[in-house]
Structures are given as structure tokens and as C-alpha cells.
Amino acid sequence: MSHISRRSLIIGSLLAATGMVTGCGKQAGRDATPASPAATQRSDLPVDTATQRFELPADFVPEGIASGPGNTLYVSSFGGGIYRIDSSTGNGELITDGWGTESTGMKVDESGRLFVCHGLGGDARVLDTRTNAVLAHYVFGQPQTILVNDTVLLRDSAWFTDSRLPVLYRLPLSGDSLPPPEAVMTLPITGDLVYTEGQNANGLCSTPDGGALLVVQTSTEKLFRVDPATGLSVQVDLGGISLPWADGLYLEGSTLYVVLSQKNQVAVFRMTQDGRSGRLVNTISDASLDAPTTLAADRDRLYLANTQMNLTTFQQSAPGSRCWVSAIRKA
User: Fold this and answer.
1) Where are the alpha helices (DSSP H) in the chain?
2) Span between the terminal Cα atoms of the chain, in Å
3) How far apart are CA 331 and CA 317, in angstroms?
């Protein structure tokens, strides 16, 4: 394997296969306006209640997923688009067709703002979920040089992983105001988390006590605790349990959910408050899972975005096929 990450290769092949080429960027100034009418055309898609899945539009290969106000889910795609689903009905609409690069990890804050990572675009945007307007645009590095993969929102900051460089990006937050573009801070990662060939820092969440960050490294199948003040990383003691094909993380209280993409499983750990150790308490699987990447949750269900991709052979679904979001019980 070269120094190009697995996901970078997959993104390139997907964009080529589906015709969603990264060169088709928006015009200057487009960020300050809502999505175009064409991008918000509704598509009322059925919910398969037997298998608890929400169908996505044809050729929409999902990457990130986030829960919003009420019954709302947001799903990002390798092609850059973002699709909104009402989980109570399954009705959905494409709220934007993107900005010329993939959309990856996402989170919605209490003010209804959607924070969206843009992978190899090297940047992130913040959208108003009521109007779909872009509220802010943050550039972390040169496109194709870094890979902004996932984000987590803490009380006073938003954090972002980079799958190519051993750093985290921090965006300070205060109330309902968003900081200027120059407020972005880069925190080098030191200690146990050492970058290798393949996919590095991927999923991201906080520790249960909110005092540190948890980062999963796909290439080594390990979880790390990162001090947000110093960048010092320490491997989390999971009792000898490895995390093959680990991708998205989701923390609820002291329970950590880890997506094991090619295993079609979610590993469930009970974590200590400081996040330094955890023990495996469950492994969730479901027949509807097919190479899920990330997950969101509500009171009793987990929502997983399925890509149908084989990350070992780089095989993908045929053009025109449809991926889906699985809704499975937590227990």
C-alpha cells in the first residue's frame, strides 16, 4: 500500500464512477446562499419497516451521518451532497449537492447548526439546518494534502481529525456566534498515536467526563485518548480487544459505540469516566448492515450509513444502485 490512504483511493474511484468529479466546484460567493432549488427537490422514499432501513437516492454513497432536531437525520456522501431524512416517515430531500469535494463526518449542535467535514478538500463548513445556508467556511490545509475526516462538538470547541497528518484541528465556540476563519488552531498529536500507512485518525468523540478526546486509528485497530491541551496521546486499554476496520465513534454517557465497517458490526464498550480504559459489553450486528461507516443515535436506535463497499478489494456497488441507512436497536 502506498502512502495514499484506503479511503482516499475509494473516494477517487467513487467520484470517477458516479461522475461526481471534484473539479465541479461552486461559483465564488455561493457559500453565503442557501442550496439551490434543484438541490432541495424532495424525494419521498419508502421505509422498509421489516429491516428498519431508509433508502437513499441512486448513486448517493454515504459517509457521515448526524442526528438533528426532532426526528431529523443528515447523511453526507462521497460525492459531496447532504441528504436529510425524517426518521419518523422515511421522507427525505437533498439539501445541497455539495461544494466540489466529498462530505465526510458531521455533527449538529444545540443551535441547529450542521458542522460538515470535507475530507480531501481540507476544509469544513457550518450550515444552518433551517435555511440550508452556509454560515461559515473553515480551511485547515491544502486540498489533497490533508484529509479532514470527523468532528465532535464540545461545550467550547469543535474538533476535527486529519487522516493524513498527525494533528487535530480546534475551532473555538462561544454561544451562538461562530469564530472567524483565522481562529482555527492546529494541535500536533504526540505519544502513542503514531501515523502509519493506510487510514489513520478516523472517528472522534469525547471521553465520558468531557476532559479529553477519543480517536480511533483504523490502520492499527486501536483507540487513543488525546489530551486537548497538549496533544499527548495514550492508547486506551480495551482489555486486549482490537477494532478491525474501525470507523465512526458515538459516545452516550459512558457507553462507546464503534463501527467495525467490514465486519458489519458495532462494538459496544463501557468506558471509565476519564476514557483511559473500557471493557467490551456487547457486539451488535444486523442483516441490514453492509459496510457501514458512521453512526448516529436517538433514544433506542442506532442509525448507520451503509456504503456497500468492499474496502479490501475496493469493489463498489454498480452505478445506479442505492445505498441505505439502517435503523437498529441499541441492545
Assistant:
1) 6-18
2) 37
3) 30
Among 162, 243, 231, 157, CA closest to 191 = 231
Taking only the tens place, the pLDDT of each residue in 9-52 is 444 434 333 333 332 322 223 333 333 333 333 344 444 443 48
pLDDT at 163 over 60: yes
What pLDDT, in 10s, does the model give residues 108-132?
A: 999 999 999 999 999 999 999 999 9
Can you name the residues that pair with 315 across neighbouring β-strands?
A: 310
- The C-alpha angle with vertex 117 and arms to 114 and 119, in degrees rounded to 5, equals 160
Tens digits of per-residue pLDDT, 195-226? 999 899 999 999 999 999 999 999 999 999 99
Cβ(214)–Cβ(275) under 8 Å?
A: yes
Q: Which residue's C-alpha cell is 453492509?
A: 290
Do the beta carbons of residue 75 and residue 131 sit within 8 Å?
no
Give the span between the Cα atoms of 213 and 204, in whole angstroms.
Answer: 7
Residue 84 CA from chain centroid, whole number? 15
Q: Sheet containing 148-153: which strands, arranged edge to edge?
A: 148-153, 157-162, 167-172, 185-188
